C-alpha cells in the first residue's frame, strides 16, 4: 500500500547496548531458522515459510475496550500485507485478560512454544514492564501499539513501540486546551496504581509548569475505585478552569459522571486513553467537551486513512478507533522490517524495526528510531455532539 521509504540503511555505530541484564538467547528458535530467510528484496522478497507473529492484547476484562480493536486492526493489516504476496504471516492471538500473570504466560507461550518471529502488544503499559523484560531476555522483538508510559523502549534493544508516548500526547493536549479555553488554573486527578496513568502524571506536572498553569487541586485514586466524591469535592471547592485527568476508561466513566452530577462544569483534558469511542458511548452527554490528545483521528486526511476506515467498518461492522489504527499500522511496520533484508528471523526484525526512517502511515508520517521509540505528530481532538472533532 502506502510504503514510502525503505528501511535497511545500516546505522553503523548506533548498535544499542542491552540494558545491563544478561541476555540468554535460544538458538534453536526462530532467530536461527534459515527457512525464514528468503530471496529478493523489498517488494520482491519471497519467504517460503509462514512467518508467525504473536499478538498479546487484553481481549477481556478492564482493557478490552482497546484490546478488541487492536485484535481487529492487526488482523486487517496482516490480511492486506498477505494479499501483497511473497510473504505469508500468521497471527497467533492471545488474550492477557488485562492481567500481568496472563500476559507473562502468553509471552512465554509465544516465545517458547510457538517460536514466533516477533510479538505485538500487550495492551497496557502495566503489563509491558514485565513482559518486555522477558522478551528482551529471550531475544524476541516486541512492538507496542498502545504502551505509552515513560521508559518502555528503554527496556532494551528488542523493544519498540508504534504508540505515541503519553508525554507527547499530553504535551499537545494541555497547551491546545490552554489556548482554546484560556486556562490559568487547573485540578489534576490521576490513578496512582496504574503504571501508564502514574507516569502520565509526571508529564502533566512538567507541562503545567512549562505553560505557567497553576494547580489548585491535586487528587489521586486507584484503578478499581468507583466512588470519587471525596476527590471531586476538593476539585469543586478549588474551582479550576479545567480538570486534567489521567485514568483508564474503567475509572474515567464513573469519575466524569460523578463530576458532572456534583456540578463540576470545567472541561476535562486527557491523553491517549480518552481516544476511544467506547468511552464516549459509556459517558453519553457527559463526554461533551472532553479534550483528547492522541495518535490518530478518523477526521485526519493521512495517507490511506479513509480507505482504512471504510475497509475496517465493512469487515467488522463498527468504525475503527486509535487502537485499531495503531495495530493495523504495526502489520505494515513489521512487514517493512522483514522485507528490508528479506529475513523474518528475530535478529533481522530487531535490526530493521529500529531503522524505519519514514513510513507514510494512516497515523501520518511515522518513524521508529534506533532506540525503538516512535516519532509522529500528535492529534488533539474535542468531543462535540458525541463525535471526535479536531481541535
Ligand atoms: C498504556 C495506555 C493505555 C491507554 C492503553 C489502552 O496508553 O497503558 O500505556
From TrEMBL:
InterPro entries: BCAA_transport, Leu-bd, Peripla_BP_I. Keywords: Signal. Coiled coil: none annotated. It holds the Pfam family Peripla_BP_6. Residues 1-24 form the signal peptide. Residues 50-376 form the Leucine-binding protein domain. Belongs to the leucine-binding protein family. This is Branched-chain amino acid transport system substrate-binding protein. It comes from Glycomyces sambucus.
